[in-house]
Description:
Elements: H1 4-7, E1 25-28, E2 41-44, H2 61-68, H3 76-87, E3 104-106, E4 122-124, H4 125-129, E5 137-143, E6 146-151, H5 152-158, E7 160-165, E8 168-175, E9 180-185, E10 187-188, E11 191-193, E12 195-202, E13 205-210, E14 216-218, E15 223-226, E16 236-237, E17 240-243, H6 244-250, E18 255-257, E19 300-305, E20 308-313, H7 314-320, E21 322-327, E22 330-337, E23 357-362, E24 364-365, E25 368-369, E26 372-375, E27 378-381, E28 387-388, E29 394-396, H8 414-420, E30 425-427
Parallel strand pairs: 2-11, 6-18, 20-30
Antiparallel strand pairs: 1-2, 3-12, 4-18, 5-6, 5-17, 7-8, 8-9, 9-16, 10-11, 12-13, 13-14, 14-15, 19-20, 21-22, 22-23, 24-25, 26-27, 27-28, 28-29
Amino acid sequence: MLSLAALSGLALWACTEGLSEVGLEKRTAMGGQQPTSRPFTAVVSSTRSTAGAQGRLQLPPDLAVTRTRSLVPVTPEETRLIEIWRSEHWTTNFYIKKVLLSEIHRVGTTRDAIEPIDKPRFWNTRIARTFIDGREPVIAFATNGDVRAYPLQVLLWHEVVNDVVGGDPVAVTYCPRTNTWRVFDRRVVDAAVRFGVSGNVRSGGLLMWDTLTQTWWQQLNGEAVVGDLTGVRLETRPSLLVSYSDFQRAFPDGRVLSTEWPVVHAPYGTTPYVGYDSREVPSTYFSGSLDTRLPATRRVLAMTVGGDALAVDLDSLVQQRTMNISVGDRSVVAVWFPGTVSVLDQTEIRSSRDTGTAMAYERKVGDRTLSFDTSGEGFKDRETGSLWNLWGHGIRGPLQGVRLSPIVHSNSLWFSWVATYPETRLLP
């Protein structure tokens, strides 16, 4: 079992309370349960427009100047698209954008038809085990000793969970069309906003929207691409995708997002994306050119550091299990562990194939840069012979108790990652 103190280095997050979804609510968080030195104004609303209520949002002057150079003008052809969205009561400022509106595809649903979760409820791990198979993937996230798991069998039906965690507002997100999970800090220029599902996609992936300014945000990288907040990028919090069994063994007292939410189309534990990650071509809502260095729906361990985008072919990583690599100015170890199934394969998720999961950790410990090899129980560094587990914690040897710093990463599908980061270096 891992100690809560050891886990804190992962910057995992967990929910402490839900937020109102009725009307527009503003309140100041006093940090009653878990003190915070950064009070915030939480802004939450229903799907009704709150554009015009953003008086607290003042963009920094440097951002306003920088983004001017990246804005894309509206073309005559895009004017018709704007008229359609206006007829659907979008008050988004479509004239401030950094992408072509023609790159955005409607997926046949209205905003928040895929309903985000605004008041999350949690089970203990014993109750959750009766509903979740041990091999099913969960997003592990915690702060201040509070540990949570968010099962993908729930997230693939809702895509966004708005939480307040340790006094900080976060959005736990998953896009099944790209197999990308992200945990974002929801504070935008000192105001905390609610995120929803816009019903639109770009580069095959989820576009979120905030109910304060109705800006549209790319979920894969947390960047605002259309609307008043264009150019703002959400802070991404490190998190891990692990099997439920791995989470439960490590944190028997952790909490698990419940399945007590209404789903119209199908029960939890099933997926509408049967065979999606075995297709030769990606989503029909992807109109870009394909990078043929890998099959479109191949999983990659993907990350960016200092403007350097890197993807590791998961098929290669499965064979090697451990790879010592460099990304930007960081020395990184990429590791893969079996025992986690896909949620994009069989109708019953528990019957799906084992695709495993991959993680990325910084290799520097103090002033020393370690190199790692695969070990039967995890991975082992060559310098001290210490053994490390999938959480990046030293569990045996001279470095027992030491933890590696996680690198924000994903196990995205190749076509969507490289469409967002076309200069991606690929490691075979």
